[in-house]
Design brief:
Blueprint (H helix, E strand, L loop, with lengths): L1 H17 L5 E4 L12 E5 L5 H4 L6 H12 L17 E4 L1 E3 L2 E6 L8 E4 L3 E6 L2 E14 L2 E8 L3 E10 L4 E6 L9 E7 L8 E5 L16 H6 L2
Parallel strand pairs: 5-13
Antiparallel strand pairs: 1-2, 2-13, 3-6, 3-12, 4-5, 6-7, 7-8, 8-9, 9-10, 10-11, 11-12
């Protein structure tokens, strides 16, 4: 019941905000008297959705998933030292028409996050939080981290290169792995600096059908060359 009330409050909050005259809609529109269940995609500059995006707290399902997988990775290595000023929690950053945005997807499972703890890494995916045993971490510079980790599915290498320290933006490279020869690069931002960016909300309270947003293709090579 508590979760239902919270969801209802969120729907009302989004609907109320999206009815403001200065709301920038990417697709669809919510107006006074319109069905609150109607889907819409809009840019939320109020920051109301950012609390969701930066929530790394486990619910009951998350805890069960995480600790069950963690059993297969024990014993964990010695705790690793991460400099205080190096970000540990990361959120995906998108680009649309050359500008950076956070994104609140229709289906929460598409909200990918990455976290570094003292002894593990955590990939927040559609399947829940997936832990990795932190085997080795090095810092070639104050803005560059290289991580070697082992998780239940595959060995994994993660490289984080900050490309904008003021805004906390980094190119995070996952892989290659034994299942994938190539790497997967993702533009991410320090969770403590999400206040610097507007957020696109994919509002669909009655359905998990993903509205397609044509985000820009990020030129990672150019971003990395600038460093």
């Amino acid at each position: 019941m508590k979760r239902y009330i919270s969801l209802l409050a969120l729907i009302i909050s989004y609907t109320t905000f999206a009815q403001h005259a200065d709301t920038a809609f990417v697709k669809g529109e919510l107006t006074e008297g319109s069905n609150p269940g109607s889907p819409a995609i809009f840019i939320d500059t109020s920051g109301r959705a950012k609390r969701e995006l930066t929530n790394f707290v486990f619910n009951h399902y998350d805890s069960a998933t995480y600790f069950e997988q963690l059993k297969r990775l024990r014993p964990l290595k010695h705790k690793k030292t991460v400099p205080e000023n190096f970000p540990r929690k990361w959120i995906v950053l998108y680009q649309l028409k050359g500008k950076n945005y956070l994104y609140r997807p229709c289906d929460w499972g598409y909200h990918f996050r990455f976290e570094i703890t003292d002894s593990t890494t955590i990939n927040y995916t559609m399947e829940g939080p997936e832990p990795g045993r932190l085997d080795k971490i090095s810092f070639p510079s104050k803005t560059h981290a290289i991580i070697e980790a082992t998780n239940y599915w595959e060995g994994r290498r993660v490289e984080i290169k900050l490309v904008d320290t003021a805004k906390g933006i980094a190119v995070v490279t996952f892989g290659p792995t034994k299942y994938r020869e190539g790497v997967n690069r993702v533009l991410m931002v320090d969770a403590k600096k999400v206040h610097l960016f507007p957020i696109i909300v994919n509002y669909c309270p009655t359905s998990k059908v993903q509205e397609i947003i044509d985000f820009d293709k990020i030129d990672f090579k150019s971003l990395l060359k600038e460093q």
